[in-house]
Amino acid sequence: MHENKALWLHTKRAPLTVGPAPYTAPGADEIVVRVRAVAVNPMDRLQQTMGDIFTPWTKYPFVVGSDVAGEVVEVGSSVTRFAVGDRVLGYAAGSDKQRNRAAEGGFQHYVVLLAHMATPIPATLSFEEAAVLPLGLSTAACGLFQKDFLAMMAPLAAPTCAGKTLIVWGGSTSVGSNAIQLAVAAGYDVITTASPRNFDYVKRLGARLAFDYRSKTVISDIINALRGREIAGALAIGIGSAAACIDIVGACEGKRFVAMATPATSFDNVPAGRGRLLRLVPAIARMLAGTIMQTLKARRHGVRIKMIWGSALIANEVGPMIFETFLPSALAESRFVAAPNPTVVGTGLAQIPVALEAQRQGVSATKLVVTL
Ligand SMILES: NC(=O)c1ccc[n+]([C@@H]2O[C@H](COP(=O)([O-])OP(=O)(O)OC[C@H]3O[C@@H](n4cnc5c(N)ncnc54)[C@H](OP(=O)(O)O)[C@@H]3O)[C@@H](O)[C@H]2O)c1
């Protein structure tokens, strides 16, 4: 029998603590993976500090974490794509409202994954490299391919040229690194923003042009670069990205749609404990004001905006399209790279809170990873 351990969130806003966890056998369409590496995301942190507001459905005690890589130890009765011993990466879907299950949270030694949200890892990739992909890739795919978002053509091994340009604001983020690659694999031209130190990085991923999002002229520079071109819409990542993308998309020809990954304001500085109200109340006020201003601005410019929920693809055709159809051969043939590069923070579940705090302090074109 497998002895499991997890990083528990025992109740809302509690500190994350390591403790024993049950081993859960897979359902028919699931696999169990011995996790060897996890990556941390802003949402993992916010589920602890802001879970009562952002994920009020959470059943405690809970295990958070979305990004895992490891070895398959058990497969469900209907699973044909995987066998015991396979190296896989996968999206741990426990935090999704429909799943809402500690057994499916990534921050534990043995996790239950939906088989259609897992992909074999080629021999050329380490667990640490592979773990950077799931949530960033899923969020990008939700914005680009879902029918009620940008509804772009699917990524293929040999795409036909769409003749359209996608704007990815925040190309050096984890979500942006995946969005650039997915859009190029679907046959689109990509214009992105990043800090100048990351221009080469985003161009290596396939962006044709990169602009500094801190420049005072960035919006007009991008609008000028898009003259005479048809746009496929915009993926807005990072604080302030939605407002900028509304200005750009509203001034261009083509799809007037902004898929938003980031809310109007940051809750990064709201603590789980002491001093919470003092930070929370102004953050909520900024969020409401920012959301109303974004909505009014979009209406004025004739642009549709919509917030992405990064796990939505598990319940529609986009999940299998990415994890079953596109990613396995794209990774194996290096047509798609695991980006951004991992930075390993440490080993063991107790290092995950350290990685989450380092993530809160800010990263640039890297993903923080913990090995287990
Ligand atoms: N809606 C969802 O379901 C969902 C899911 C996942 C993530 N997200 C959100 O998506 C965003 C990105 O997450 P992530 O994990 O991909 O981030 P990340 O990789 O941790 O982001 C780090 C990067 O952010 C860039 N950046 C910082 N401020 C920016 C700004 N104002 N505009 C554009 N880029 C900026 C930095 O670029 P430079 O170093 O080049 O300056 C840095 O490379 C976060 O807001 C996160 O909460 C949403």
Strand and helix layout:
Elements: E1 4-8, E2 17-21, E3 30-39, H1 42-54, E4 67-75, E5 87-91, E6 110-114, E7 118-120, H2 127-130, H3 134-145, E8 164-169, H4 174-185, E9 189-194, H5 199-204, E10 209-212, H6 218-225, E11 230-236, H7 241-250, E12 253-254, E13 257-260, H8 276-301, E14 304-307, H9 318-332, E15 341-347, H10 352-361, E16 366-371
Parallel strand pairs: 8-9, 8-11, 9-10, 11-12, 11-13, 13-14, 15-16
Antiparallel strand pairs: 1-2, 3-4, 3-6, 3-16, 4-5, 5-7
Helix pairs in contact: 3-4, 6-7, 7-8
Bound molecules: NADP nicotinamide-adenine-dinucleotide phosphate.
NADP nicotinamide-adenine-dinucleotide phosphate binds at residues 41-43, 135-136, 139, 169-170, 172-175, 193-195, 198, 213, 237-241, 261-262, 308-310, 363-365.
Rg over alpha carbons: 20 Å
Question: What percent of residues are in strands?
Answer: 15-25%
Note the run of SSEs as H and E: EEEHEEEEHHEHEHEHEHEEHEHEHE
Portion of residues in helices? 25-40%
CATH superfamily of the largest domain: NAD(P)-binding Rossmann-like Domain
- SS-derived structural category: alpha/beta
CA distance, first residue to last residue: 18 Å
- The biggest beta sheet, please? 7 strands, mixed
What is the count of DSSP helices, taking H or I runs of 4+ residues? 10
Looking at how many chains there are and whether they match, the oligomeric state comes to single chain
Total domain units: 2
> Looking at CATH, which topology of the largest domain would you report?
Rossmann fold
